[in-house]
Amino acid sequence: MLDAGLLLEALTDDQAWPRGRAALAAFPGSTWEGDLAEALREPDPASRDALVTEQLLELDWRAQRWARVPRVCASIATSAGFLFGCIALLQGLALPAEEGSAPALGAALFSALNALTVGIAGTAFCIAVHVRARRVVRERHQAAEKLVARLLVLADANS
Prior knowledge:
Elements (H helix, E strand, L loop, with lengths): L3 H7 L5 H10 L6 H9 L4 H20 L4 H26 L6 H58 L1
C-alpha cells in the first residue's frame, strides 16, 4: 500500500491528478489505490460516491484484518509461560526425594518462575506491538480519508 500522506502532498496542484491517476492505473497488480483511481473515473457522481465508499470499506477491512494477531500472540505467550512453568514444576517434583530435597524443590520452583516470566515478557511485548499497530492504523486511515476527500474534489473539478 502506498503512503496516503505522500500521495496527498503530491496532489497539491490540480494538474497533478491526471498524471497521478495514470500512474496508479499503471501500477502492477490490483491495488487499493488503483481501484480507487478506477472508481474516481466514474462520470456519474452518485455512482462515483458509491464506488469510493466501497473502496473506503475495503481499506478499512484490509487494515483491520490483522488487528487480532498481536492479541492472539499475547494469549499464546501467556499460555506457553504457564504451560512451561507447570512442566518445570512437575519435573522438579518428580525428582526422587533425597536428604537435601528442599534445594531441589527450590530449583524446580525457580525454573517454573523463569518460564512464567519469559511468557509474561512475551505478552508485554505483544501488547506493546498491538498498541503501536493500532495507532499506526488509525493514522493511516485518517490520511487515506483526507486523500480520498482531495481526490473527490479533483475528480469533480476534472468532470
